[in-house]
Amino acid sequence: MAVLVEVHELVKGFPDGRGGWLSVLHGVSVRVDGLVCVLGPSGCGKSTLLNVVAGLEPPDGGQIRFYRDGHPVERHEVRIGYVFQDPRLLNWRTVQENVEFGLQSLQLPPATRKARARAYLQLVGLEDFAGQFPLFLSGGMRQRVGLARALALEPDVVLMDEPFSKLDEITARELRQELLGIQARLDQRILFVTHNPAEAALLGDRIYVLAGRPARVVAEVNNPIPKPRQGEAPEVAALARDIVRYLEAGQGAVTRRTFLVSGVALVAGAVAGGLGSLAWPPAVWAQPRVDVSVAAVGATGLLMRLVKDLGLDRKHGVELNVVPLAVADAERAVVQGRVPVGIFNPISAVRALAEGHALKLFAPFLLNHNFLLVRAESPYRRVEDLRGKPVGSLSKISGTYNTLAAILYAKGLGDPERYFQLRFGEAVPLITLMERGDLEAVALFEAHVSRLLATGRYRVLLEFNEEFRRMTASDNLFIALAAKPAWLEANGTTARQIRAALAEAVGAFRQNPVGFLERYGREIFGLETAPEIQLAARRLRGLYTARWDRAFLDRQIRQLRLVQARGDFLPGHVSPEEVFWP
Amino acid sequence: MSVVWEQGQARDWLRRGAEYSTDVLRFYVAPVLAVGLAWYGISAAGWVPATLLPGPERVLGRVVEATRGGILATHLALTVRRVVVAFAAALVISLPVGAAMGFSRGLERLLTPWLVVALSIPGLIWALITLLVFGLSELTIYTAIGAGLVPMFVVNWWQGVKALDRDLLLMARVYRASKWRVARDVVLPQLLPQLFASARYGLAWGWKIVVVIEMLGFGNGVGYLLYESYHLFSMERVLAWTMAFLSVMLVLEYGVLAPLERRWTRWRPRVTFGG
Question: CA A339, CA A305: separation in Å to the nearest integer?
Answer without folding.
Answer: 18
